[in-house]
Amino acid sequence: MADPQWQFIGEEDTLSKKRCQRLFAESGKDDDIALFYTEGKFYALEAWCQHQGGPLFSGDIEDLKGTSIKAVQCPWHGYKFKLEDGENTNIPGLNQKKYDVKCEEGKVYVDCTHKLSTQEVRS
Ligand code: FES
């Protein structure tokens, strides 16, 4: 496995104010990431739904039925993806890529090789 490429995203105080947000990739929209925050923890998945491209950063975070497992529900057709690993709970194998996230001394980092920003910088 490749060494982690921890990329600073922002301050935990700021990023934890939103449950879902989009991280913009300099390399293009297809590389965008959805950053989630719930119950004191950050998660990151690729931003666009594997089903038909819905924006997961506009989805709702819910507990999977009868569990405390957190999932995001795609706003387009309602498929759910586990935040911890991107697994689709509706269609086996239709999973989102997951990115590791860490917090250190109030700063949030995502393990990602492409450059990300909390604001759209692309033209
Ligand atoms: Fe996400 Fe269809 S595009 S469930």
From TrEMBL:
Pfam families cross-referenced by the UniProt entry: Rieske_4
Keyword Metal-binding tagged: yes
Keywords linked to the UniProt accession: 2Fe-2S, Iron, Iron-sulfur, Metal-binding
GO MF annotation: an example: 2 iron, 2 sulfur cluster binding
Gene3D superfamilies found in the cross-reference section: Rieske [2Fe-2S] iron-sulphur domain
Presence of the UniProt keyword Metal-binding in the record: yes
Lineage: superkingdom: Eukaryota
Protein name: Uncharacterized protein
